[in-house]
């Protein structure tokens, strides 16, 4: 392989591995996938800058011999964005671990319920025409069911410690 082919192959491999890891249910793998995508983007921006040249801020060389400062600025911006999103995903992982002692996103029953519904636009849906279990939250028929759900959750999770134990429940305020 020639040196001109190596960098695009590495960039493509990093993008492929990053997308593969992003599609997993494990939040740790999602974080690693996002970091691989960030590094692949940095390499892509670095390779778009062309060959190395003299520093443009010094002004010693001809304009043709100077390196382009824009890819370097874009790489710095991409590093900051990648760091910020990685910190956010780390906070999600920590919060998930504190609440349910696992960092794998489970199958959501709400997603299954939505997938079972027939395909129609949201503008065509009249909440009064839907079955009670398919009606949106805070519909007139769901207010009583919310109290039952709150009591059931309070009964089920009463002995389980959480880091929000000092916070009052929304229904307990007078």
UniProtKB/TrEMBL annotation:
Biased amino acid composition, Acidic residues: 121-131
The keyword Transmembrane helix belongs to this UniProt entry's keyword annotation: yes
Transmembrane segments: 6-23, 30-53, 73-94
Subcellular location(s) of the protein: Cell membrane
Highest taxon of source: Bacteria
Range of residues in the leader sequence: none
Keyword Amino-acid biosynthesis set for record: no
Region of interest (Disordered), residue spans: 115-145, 155-174
Keywords for the protein's UniProt record, in alphabetical order: Cell membrane, Membrane, Transmembrane, Transmembrane helix
A Pfam family assignment: Oxidored_q2
Topological relation to the membrane, as annotated: Multi-pass membrane protein
GO CC terms of this entry: plasma membrane
Assigned protein family: Belongs to the CPA3 antiporters (TC 2.A.63) subunit C family.
Name used for this protein in its record: Multisubunit sodium/proton antiporter, MrpC subunit
């Amino acid at each position: 392989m020639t040196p001109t082919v190596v960098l695009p192959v590495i960039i493509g491999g990093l993008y492929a591995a990053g997308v593969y890891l992003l599609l997993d249910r494990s939040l740790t793998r999602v974080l690693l996938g996002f970091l691989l995508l960030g590094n692949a983007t940095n390499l892509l921006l670095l390779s778009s800058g062309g060959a190395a040249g003299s520093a443009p801020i010094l002004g010693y060389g001809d304009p043709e011999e100077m390196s382009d400062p824009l890819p370097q600025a874009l790489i710095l911006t991409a590093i900051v964005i990648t760091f910020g999103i990685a910190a956010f995903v780390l906070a999600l992982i920590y919060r998930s671990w504190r609440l349910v002692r696992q960092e794998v996103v489970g199958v959501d029953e709400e997603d299954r319920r939505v997938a079972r519904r027939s395909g129609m636009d949201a503008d065509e849906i009249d909440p009064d025409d839907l079955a009670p279990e398919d009606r949106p939250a805070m519909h007139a028929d769901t207010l009583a069911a919310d109290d039952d759900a709150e009591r059931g959750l309070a009964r089920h999770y009463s002995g389980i410690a959480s880091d929000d134990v000092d916070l009052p429940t929304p229904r307990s305020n007078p």
